Structure formats: C-alpha cells, structure tokens
Amino acid sequence: MEVPGSLMALQINGVLEDALADSALVGPGLSQYLEALSEHLATATPTQADSRAFMESVQLLLAAMSFLPGNRPFKYQAPTSVRAIGPAALECVLLGEGGVLSVDVALEIPASCFDDKDQLNNRYHAKRALYLAEVAARLQRHPSTGSIAWEAGSDPRRPFLALQPAATTGLGGLTLRLHAVPAEGTFPLSKLAPHRNNLRGVVGADGQPAPTPHYNHSILEDLLLLRQIAEVTEEAARNPALRSALALLLVWARAHSLDEGADGLSPGFLVQLLLYTAAKV
User: Fold this and answer.
1) How far apart are CA 27 and CA 25, in angstroms?
2) Could you state, in order of their start, the residue ranges of all structural domains in the chain?
3) Residue 87 burial by CB count (10 A; 0-12/13-18/19+): exposed, middle or buried?
4) Which SS3 state, helix, strand or coil, does residue 213 take?
5) Which of 42, 219, 195, 250 has the alpha carbon at shortest distance from 114?
6) What subcellular locations does the record give (predicted)?
7) For residue 91, is pLDDT > 70?
8) What does DSSP assign to residue 196?
9) Which end of the chain has the lower number of beta carbons within 10 A, N or C?
10) Exposed (0-12), middle (13-18) or buried (19+): which is 168, by Cβ within 10 Å?
11) Which phi and psi (to 5°) does residue 11 adopt?
12) Is the pTM of this model over 0.90?
C-alpha cells in the first residue's frame, strides 16, 4: 500500500510499511482459511463432550439473561457467510505489540435460527452465545485449529471466540475474533428504533415501558454490520486511496490512545467514519 508523490508521501509510506501487517497474511492466505472454515462449519459434527463443554461455558451468561434454552429451543445451522470485517475487509490490519495480529470475522447466522420477537428480553444475545458455543464445539478438534476460547468485548452481552489457527496453516501468528451476526432482515428495523422498548422489565416512573436505546443498538449494530462492510468494500474499489486513509486513521488513533476502552474509537467505527467522509467529498 503506497501513497504516490512528494517527501511527505515517502514519510507516509514509511509509516504504513512499519505499521501494517503483511498482505500475505491478511489477503489471499486469510481468505483461503476462512473458506475452509466455512466448509467445515457446514459439515462437521462435534463430539458430545466438546458440545457439552462449550454449552456449559455459556450457562452463566444465559442465566444472567434469564434465558432458559429448554423453553425456546435453538437449532444450529451453518453460517450463510464467513468473512473478514472491519479494516481486514480492506486488507488493512495494524501490527499489534510483539507483531501480534488480530482480525475480526463475522459468521452470518441464518434468519431461520431465530423465532419471532427474539429481539425481546435478551433472547437474541442468548441465542447468539449458543450459536458461538456450537461453532466452538465444531472447531475444537479440527486440525487447522491451534486454540479457541471465549473473550469478552466492550459489550458483555456479545462475547466472541478468539481462534488461533494452527502453525501448519501459515497463519500461526494470527488471532481471529469470531463474531456471530444475524442475517439482514432477521428483525424489523422499526422495532429497534431508539424509542422502542425491548426489555419488558424496564419501566419508567409512570409504570409504562421505557425506551431501551442502548439495548436496541447492540442488536442493530450486528444486524447492519455486513451491509456496512459491503458498502465499504465497494467504495474502496472505486477509491483505492481509501485503504491508505484508513491505515493512517488507525495509526493516529493508536498513537493517541484513542482506540482503548469500551468507548474508544474502534476500528469498525473508524471504517464507518471514513466511509461517511468519503460520501461527503
């Protein structure tokens, strides 16, 4: 990734060269791995021990959400798509400390995995956790899996799986953060508007259901994620400079510690900010 031009361009290119991961890791090599992972998730059957272990690992989370799986049965279906998201969608990933690389990956949950009104009362978040538990059980013993474990993100209702590919894959220095997201159209957007109530126990001083904007946003963010990534990819195809601009934004945010904490400037947010800015130019 190079910026053509003057002395400043040379300096920028130097910054990008030092900060960005090798395109061989976040380009074709990653794409091939994700394709193989998708095929495995469509055909693999986990052992009972692995399935039970990962199901037990989410019981505390489900209990915190007051979700009883027996009352609302959940059946796993293979993800309809598996793809890199965030900066990795543009093959633009910063090197972490010690050369560690982390790439966010979205597993698209088929709409048929959900029931009507699953946007209510943490049902979506519970089924999302169950889905990832099923994914983990299927990947646990696959030869390409080095390790797989739960990690908490900025939203405790939406944990993700940290998957480290085996060294034999050529991606041994990479950590894939597997996020599960619903297929677009799974939930009506109107029901996730800021003024809507989707936690029936939340009431106002008048005893009436109160708005739950933060809860609604946590579902909406997942629901629209793949559409946003498609828009970013299309814009980058029209404007190749978008990749360099994103890389510089990521370097700037890290240099000023603006990418830290739950309310920091996440890579996903910076991608959307850049897309919005490009649309206004």
Assistant:
1) 6
2) 7-280
3) buried
4) helix
5) 219
6) Nucleus, Nucleolus
7) yes
8) -
9) C
10) exposed
11) -65, -40
12) no
